[in-house]
Amino acid sequence: MKAKQVSVFLENKSGRLNEVAQILGEAGINISAFTVADTSDFGVLRLIVSEPEKAYSVLKENQFSARTTDVVLANSPNRPGALSKMLKILNAEGVFIEYLYAFTMNEETAVIVIRPTNIDKCIASLEKNRDALLSNNNYKL
């Protein structure tokens, strides 16, 4: 399914990540998943949150450089080979992935956060190949 991700640009300074977590917590926004990519000068914090538009607003109000981005969330079996199978299908369908990250829901299910260059093509490819992905159990978009 299509979802909104919040991206926050952070200076590489002690405490900046905690500031974001504190601001979101005080606003009642739950963080389901996050990843940080960094360079020597700054980092990009990417978040899946309960209320992305509210998160964007409160971060901007607190002088953070933030934006929202569309991503695809796909449930996958949490077992060896499931990610490879999904990526092989997307590659065969010509879906280019800018980046992805994942988090586990429980012992059986993982959620893959995918940022493809073409959201609609990615969703259509996953739906078209649902049966192949279902052979790993628990797949749903």
TrEMBL record:
SUPFAM superfamilies: ACT-like (SSF55021). InterPro entries: ACT-like_dom_sf, ACT_dom_pair. This is Uncharacterized conserved protein, contains tandem ACT domains. It comes from the Bacteria. Residues 1-128 form the ACT domain. It holds the Pfam family ACT_8. Signal peptide: none annotated. It comes from Tangfeifania diversioriginum.
